[in-house]
């Protein structure tokens, strides 16, 4: 049963923000808007601080072993989010679930949205569906939304680069 589409969108937002941390409250607001988040209040520096602290904790979920440790870290973030699910049509785009009260500052919104989205993503798609690129030099985080759930790279570019590296290693070691 698919409860809510927030999982993938929220995890992609978290990955985007974690991969390239916003430097200012304005940048945070712009990037959230660009990814489809409706902002109901002005974004303040404390929202940026709260978001950066959230991302530090969220990255620990990414780097945790899939399974119990990952679930425990998600549960800690869920417990810290003071929110409850409710129906809203705030943007005139149709009724949908929100996991927060109206008119919350962006830091509070993200502190509820990202853990709930992460929980939905992992529970719905698999506890292994969050990771970092398999290329050693790349630390980019990705949310695996592929059909088969076997994503190892953040992009086609990294996958191709790694394939070329493996091919060259095989051909140079063969007499």
From TrEMBL:
Domain Zinc finger CGNR intervals: 129-170
Listed InterPro entries: ABATE, ABATE_dom_sf, Znf_CGNR
Protein name: CGNR zinc finger domain-containing protein
Organism: Actinomadura chibensis
Lineage: Bacteria, Bacillati, Actinomycetota, Actinomycetes, Streptosporangiales
């Amino acid at each position: 049963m698919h409860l809510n589409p927030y999982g993938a969108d929220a995890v992609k937002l978290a990955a985007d923000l974690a991969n390239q941390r916003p430097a200012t409250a304005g940048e945070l607001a712009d990037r959230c808007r660009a990814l489809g988040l409706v902002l109901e209040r002005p974004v303040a520096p404390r929202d940026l601080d709260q978001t950066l602290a959230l991302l530090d904790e969220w990255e620990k979920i990414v780097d945790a072993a899939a399974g119990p440790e990952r679930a425990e870290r998600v549960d800690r973030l869920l417990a810290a989010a003071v929110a409850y699910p409710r129906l809203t049509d705030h943007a005139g785009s149709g009724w949908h679930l929100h996991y927060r009260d109206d008119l919350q500052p962006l830091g509070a919104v993200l502190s509820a949205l990202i853990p709930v989205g992460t929980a939905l993503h992992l529970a719905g798609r698999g506890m292994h569906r969050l990771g970092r690129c398999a290329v050693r030099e790349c630390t980019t985080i990705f949310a695996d939304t592929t059909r088969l759930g076997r994503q190892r790279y953040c992009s086609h570019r990294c996958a191709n680069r790694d394939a070329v590296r493996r091919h060259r290693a095989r051909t140079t070691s063969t007499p």
